[in-house]
Design goal:
single chain; 319 residues; alpha/beta; six-stranded mixed beta sheet; five-stranded antiparallel beta sheet; globular
């Protein structure tokens, strides 16, 4: 309950509230209320998700043969019973169901969703401006498209009182949507990303390898070798007196991806002309499916409420 509760900041312009949550987290990180003699557990405000992969029927049958060919006891009897009842195949912790094509199906845990939206509503009722922050990595860090549940979640948060929804987690930019006059940032990527300061490391890097050498190898050759992880924007939002978004300014930043000084790595600075054009072009393309038009002038992206195109074909209409 304490993790889900809103927090408040009183400013000269009014009281601001924040409800922060995560759909991706480590085991044991979820906060829990006390139950009987079991004490409460500190942690984060979790919004759990269910995961199922849909595959063509022929592929589902092949997966069933693999499951049924495993030694007895590898798959629990309760799992086999559930598969038979639901027409699914569970293999090594992943549930599969029939569908026209391969598709990752993610669903939100209904009790968690109700509790989160209740906190957003409470936050708005006791403040002038409410922010909902959502940490999610689904469907994966390399995906520029948010998972199917995130637009639904963000729009519901707005409809329950959020004035701004800020997504983060996947380490790169995703699109922007404006729903009922409120901005939704599906991911603003990294702003400060000083990965090279993660010392000491808890895993074995080899007897002659320093932590710094290991982290630099990870940056140059590993998961964070691409420049996209070190580019973002600072979003300056301007609202009307009635609370609707009037204008956005999107200032590109880059985090010294190719700087010569390792101590600067991950520290933001305003992007140069070439980098700014690349960052804003990417953000413009990612925002277009949500009906959000971004105009670029002098290395800055702009959005205004009175100069927007209609939503792109196939884009879900706001409820």
């Amino acid at each position: 309950a304490d993790a889900r509760a809103p927090r408040f900041l009183v400013t000269p312009a009014g009281r601001v509230s924040l409800v922060s949550l995560a759909t991706r987290f480590e085991p044991g990180a979820r906060a829990a209320d006390p139950v009987g003699r079991v004490p409460g557990r500190p942690g984060l405000n979790a919004l759990r998700t269910g995961r199922r992969v849909r595959v063509p029927p022929a592929d589902l049958a092949a997966l069933a043969r693999i499951r049924d060919g495993l030694p007895e006891g590898v798959v629990k009897t309760s799992v086999l019973d559930a598969d038979r009842a639901n027409g699914t195949v569970t293999l090594f912790g992943t549930s599969y169901a029939a569908g026209p094509a391969v598709e990752l199906d993610l669903t939100l845990h209904a009790p968690d969703l109700r509790a989160v939206l209740r906190s957003v509503r409470q936050a708005k009722q006791t403040s002038d401006f409410t922010i909902t922050a959502v940490h999610t990595h689904e469907p994966g860090n390399r995906s520029r498209t948010p998972p199917g549940f995130l637009p639904e979640l963000a729009r519901e948060a707005v409809e329950h009182g959020a004035d701004l929804v800020a997504g983060h987690g996947p380490h790169q930019l995703r699109g922007i949507e404006v729903h009922r006059g409120r901005p939704i940032f599906y991911s603003l990527g990294n702003f400060v990303f000083m990965e090279n300061t993660q010392q000491p490391l808890t895993h074995d890097t080899g007897p002659d390898t320093t932590d710094a050498e290991y982290l630099e190898h990870k940056r140059v050759h590993g998961v964070f070798e691409e420049q996209v992880w070190y580019e973002s924007v600072v979003a300056l939002c301007r609202f009307t007196g009635h609370g609707s978004l009037a204008a956005l300014e999107l200032h590109p930043v880059e985090l010294h991806w190719d700087g010569g000084r390792d101590a600067d790595r991950g520290i933001p600075r305003l992007a140069g002309e070439t980098a700014a054009a690349r960052i804003l072009d990417r953000l413009r393309r990612l925002s277009a499916p949500f009906g959000t038009g971004v105009v670029v002038r002098d290395g800055v992206g702009y959005w205004s409420a009175d100069s927007q195109p209609p939503p792109a074909a196939g884009c879900a209409s706001p409820r």
